[in-house]
């Protein structure tokens, strides 16, 4: 059983969802390196942290996804001052009226697939903090009541304590079989705290490598 309104009127494929989510994520977490070049965006899509599933796209696949997203009005090309490299930015707010917290949850669902309220609160912390689980639930409700609805509440599955939520950019009911391998719910424990710190270290290393690549691109212009 599912809970939600009509289906999303913009349907994307997996590649398009990953590309759009990465652009949103980088704008919210590392705005100083945003917009992204094709190379930086490809690296962001293939990032091993904060992703489910982990993918291995080449620049051709990302470029095709960008062309499709541009046709749908969800991304734009731009040129930054002093750079001859084309950069890309998302145009999500041109299509959907979202707050920063709504954007964070929407992005997180695109990056990792269906998640519980607890998982979403933990995973969105780097993009937008939530004071309580109730605040996360209220934000999810707002996304579900959006026109068109952007999220869907899934019924509680066997062996799970809580329901999960999914985004609707991939469609509705027909997409559920793609998410069977998602991680289990977050438990607030010492082990989880250690895992969270490890994830943050991986993220910092990834962002450092991204900074090095951006600096190399900058040096190559001279």
Task: Please provide a written account of the structure.
- It is a single chain.
- With 222 residues, this protein is mainly alpha-helical.
- It has a single domain (2-219), classed as Arc Repressor Mutant, subunit A, CATH 1.10.10.
- 46% of the residues lie in helices and 9% in strands.
- It has 8 helices and 6 strands, in the order βαβααββααααββα.
- It has helices at 14-29, 38-45, 59-71, 92-95, 100-112, 117-123, 133-144, 190-219, and strands at 2-3, 36-37, 75-79, 86-90, 151-154, 165-167.
- The strands form 2 sheets. A 3-stranded antiparallel β-sheet has the order 1-5-6.
- A hairpin with a 6-residue loop joins strand 3 and strand 4 (86-90).
Tell me the fraction of residues in β-strands, as a range.
5-15%
Helix/strand structural class: mainly alpha
Count the domains: 1
CATH C-level name: Mainly Alpha
Characterize the overall form: globular
Q: Please provide the count of β strands.
A: 6
CATH topology: Arc Repressor Mutant, subunit A
- Low-pLDDT regions: 1-6, 174-189
Defining key terms:
3-stranded antiparallel sheet; disordered N terminus; 222 residues; single chain; 8 helices; 46% helix; Arc Repressor Mutant, subunit A; mainly alpha
């Amino acid at each position: 059983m599912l809970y939600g309104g009509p289906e999303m009127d913009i349907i994307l494929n997996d590649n398009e969802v990953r590309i759009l989510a990465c652009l949103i994520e980088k704008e919210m977490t590392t705005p100083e390196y945003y917009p992204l070049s094709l190379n930086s965006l490809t690296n962001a899509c293939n990032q091993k942290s904060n992703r489910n599933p982990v993918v291995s796209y080449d620049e051709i696949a990302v470029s095709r996804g960008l062309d499709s997203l541009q046709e749908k009005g969800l991304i734009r090309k731009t040129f930054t001052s002093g750079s001859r490299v084309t950069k890309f930015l998302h145009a999500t707010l041109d299509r959907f009226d979202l707050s920063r917290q709504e954007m964070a949850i929407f992005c997180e669902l695109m990056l990792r697939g269906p998640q519980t309220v607890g998982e979403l609160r933990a995973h969105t912390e780097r993009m937008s903090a939530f004071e309580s689980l109730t605040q996360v639930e209220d934000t999810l409700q707002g996304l579900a009541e959006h026109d068109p609805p952007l999220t869907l509440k899934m019924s509680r599955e066997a062996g799970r304590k809580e329901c999960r939520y999914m985004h609707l950019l991939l469609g509705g009911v027909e997409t559920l079989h793609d998410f069977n391998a998602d991680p289990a719910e977050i438990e607030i424990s010492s082990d989880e705290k250690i895992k969270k710190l490890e994830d943050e270290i991986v993220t910092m290393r990834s962002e450092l490598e991204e900074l090095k690549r951006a600096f190399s691109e900058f040096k190559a212009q001279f």
